[in-house]
From TrEMBL, chain B:
Organism of derivation: Alteromonas mediterranea (strain DSM 17117 / CIP 110805 / LMG 28347 / Deep ecotype)
Protein name per the record: Molybdopterin synthase sulfur carrier subunit
Domain of life: Bacteria
Pathway annotation: Cofactor biosynthesis; molybdopterin biosynthesis
Keyword Nucleotide-binding: yes
Keywords of this entry: Molybdenum cofactor biosynthesis, Nucleotide-binding
Family classification: Belongs to the MoaD family.
Amino acid sequence: MISVQRDDFDHCEQYQALKEEADGDGAVVTFTGLVRDFNIQGAVSGIHIEHYPGMTEKLLMHICSEARKRWQLGQIRVIHRVGTIGPQEQIVFVGVTSKHRKNAFEACEFIIDYLKTSAPLWKQEGTSEGMKWVASRSSDQEAMDRWANTANLS
Amino acid sequence: MIQIKFFASLRESIGISSLNLEYAGESTVADVAKELVERGEEWRLLEERDVLCAVNQTLCGKDARVNDGDEIAFFPPVTGG
């Protein structure tokens, strides 16, 4: 299940849905990203996320299929919010089920790393000087690069 | 006709979110960028190395082929998640 939406989501509902759809899987791993209330320049009063409608959904689907090529997975749920989001609010959710925990942990991390480096989403932060575009971070690309040799994992 | 879209800081700098270009036989995304750069100083951003592009909503290099009817997008490095 992929969703790009303005509205907030209920983490418990998402977990419950994954648990119900798990169909014998022994592991559910979820990741939830929140808006930080600080960055290197100081306090952040919230964020605004712009995206490329159509391509974002297409890319999230692609990321899920890439994860399925690497690990045996049951259910995958990815939600990304767009628009204006306040400090400490939820931005992104990734939930994965699998027979065993290792696959679920790794796939969840792979999906968020891949999303952060290739999904067409752009963040602005509210600072004391107004809204500022966030610069991409090389540490995100390095996190993604770690998965380069996992293409043939079963 | 080629539809061209711009996003985020690139959209703000250029001052336009999309435009249509009569297809004139451009063969690659780089050719399209080269044509747009003629429009003025701020359009030169399109040729910066870190600007990403997509053809029909798929990420690609600037050497990607372009055909009549395609949707092309230019945007800065992504920062979601």
